[in-house]
Amino acid sequence: MTxxxxxxxxxxxxxxxxxxRKELIPPRQDLLWKIExxxxxxxxxxxxxxxxxxxxxxxxxxVGYPLSRINPYQIECLTSVExxxxxxxxxxQAVDSMLLHIQQSEELLSIVHRKPVSxxxxxxxxxxxxxxxxxxxxxxxxxxxxxHQEIAEVxxxxxxSVTRLLQQFEEEGMLLRHQRRLILCLIK
Length: 188
What we know:
Blueprint: E1 16-19, E2 31-37, E3 40-45, E4 51-57, E5 62-63, E6 74-77, E7 81-87, H1 95-112, H2 117-132, E8 133-136, E9 139-142, H3 148-155, H4 159-171, E10 175-178, E11 181-184
Antiparallel strand pairs: 1-7, 2-5, 2-7, 3-4, 3-6, 8-9, 9-11, 10-11
Helix pairs in contact: 1-2, 3-4
């Protein structure tokens, strides 16, 4: 599983906005948002009210309501986020970013269909480490605060299962915990 090289620069922003952690991005059908700094997740809900994570996005990614046909559709800031507005008239200049968005969505979709759950969790952690990670002495640090519940929502399992499997991975030497972050030891 690979994530492509960083996106090429987009046109000069028309305007920028800063959003706080946990803030929802306002719905706009006429623009996309380029993430300059920070991380967001996109999600919806099932008919039963279950949260369904659609993706995790970071610096240089493009997100927005026009990229989805899912309704309801929300974009939530996972950190403080700085975003540039990209109006419809400039979307043609963001084709590479939109292709990367599709590729990352498909990678995540392939992960959530893996079996057993332990494989699904491990591949999701690798995906996170490639997207939001950085090399450290012990392996690859996932530099994003994500709860066991949020992980469970992505991989369609329970928080208890995620906690149990993370403990198992830690006992097997596959990961370490560092200040509420995870380090994947086998990723070099």
